[in-house]
Amino acid sequence: MLDRIGYEAADLAAIRQAIHAPDGLVLVVGPSGSGRRTALYSMLEQVDPVRRSIQTIESSVLRPVPGWLQLRVPDGRRRDGCRWERIFARSLRSGAHAILVEKVATPGMSQLVVRAAQAGHLVLSSMALSRACSAIAELQRLRVTTAQVIDALSLVIGQRLIGRLCPQCSTPDNREPVRRALAVALNTWLAGHAIQARRAAPAGCARCGHTGYRGRVLAYELIDLDMRARGLIASGVDIVELEPGLLAEGRSIWDRGLKQVADGTTSLDALQAAVRQPH
Ligand SMILES: [Zn+2]
């Protein structure tokens, strides 16, 4: 499952390392519909439920998994945060080793999650944010200290699902904006890469329901909180400035999406609709 989501080999290794560590916090961020929980489920499935107690805390269970204890917290209007915090604290007391909690949205919850991740628990969660770096800033906004971030956080992924071009009806795309968008990447990390950019046929075909797209493809960015990244964050420099140094291979969601554009897997139009184009 995990290796079919669309993460590259080097990043899969970093993900596996974070999941098999004795403790730590793993965050997947993105807007709704970006496959956050599907990703978290595939990661948690790497943990052996016989040797480790696994629990999920969700507003609605994504899908039942044998061997996991899956708790549902109905979305209420008032004192919602407190209920999530109470249930999470109960999971900790019950001896859960790996806990997937759907969201971290209150200072109380962020403290519980961070302290658990510092004290022998693997915690997986998600945030409705656009970029991986924003997760660090958001934790700080939720009163998690920089020292706690460095100690607890092990991995952050920011991701989007983008329309996959229909292979039956897409056509080559040599438009100027496409060439311009690819030009910078071609001079750097895409150097030597064959460009096969394509676009959706306006009327599509019967195979794609006349949309020009069939299925979706993942674009993501990853921050592996290794010694180097921890040093950068500890420097106290603004996270936005640190971003290029923190991202794995220095590549953003846009960059990885652009590679799929170069490959003809998705179109520049679909990428632009899902990810803000850098200036
Ligand atoms: Zn088609």
Sum up the structure in keywords:
279 residues; alpha/beta; Rossmann fold; 7-stranded mixed sheet; two-stranded antiparallel sheet; 11 helices
Briefly summarize what is shown:
The protein has 279 residues and is of the alpha/beta class.
Describe the structure.
By secondary structure, the protein is α/β, with parallel strands linked by helices. The protein has a domain at 2-159 and 219-248: P-loop containing nucleotide triphosphate hydrolases (Rossmann fold). It has 11 helices and 9 strands. It has helices spanning 9-20, 36-44, 80-93, 107-118, 132-141, 146-152, 176-187, 227-234, 239-246, 253-262, 268-274, and strands at residues 24-29, 54-58, 69-72, 98-103, 122-127, 153-165, 171-172, 198-199, 213-224. The strands form 2 sheets. The protein has a 7-stranded mixed beta sheet, sandwiched between helices. The mean pLDDT is 94. The structure holds zinc ion. Zinc ion (ZN) is lined by residues 166, 168-169, 204-205, 207-208, 212. Residues 166, 168-169, 204-205, 207-208, 212 line the site of zinc ion.
Named once each, the bound ligands are: zinc ion
Structural class: alpha/beta
CATH topology of the domain at 2-159 and 219-248: Rossmann fold
Task: Quickly name the level 1 CATH class of the domain at 2-159 and 219-248.
Answer: Alpha Beta
What is the H-and-E element order?
A: HEHEEHEHEHHEEHEEHHHH
Give the strand order of the largest sheet, numbering strands 1, 2, ... along the chain.
3-2-4-5-1-6-9
Tell me which CATH architecture of the domain at 2-159 and 219-248 applies here: 3-Layer(aba) Sandwich
Q: Sheet with the most strands?
A: 7 strands, mixed
Low-confidence stretches: none
What is the fourth-level CATH superfamily of the domain at 2-159 and 219-248? P-loop containing nucleotide triphosphate hydrolases
Average pLDDT rating: 94
Taken as a percent bin, the fraction of beta residues is 15-25%
List the total number of helices.
Answer: 11
Oligomeric state of the chains in view = single chain
| Number of DSSP-assigned strands | 9
Share of residues in helices: 25-40%
What is the distance, rounded to the nearest whole angstrom, between the alpha carbons of the first and last residues?
Answer: 35 Å
Outline, from the CA principal axes?
Answer: globular
What is the alpha-carbon Rg in Å? 20 Å
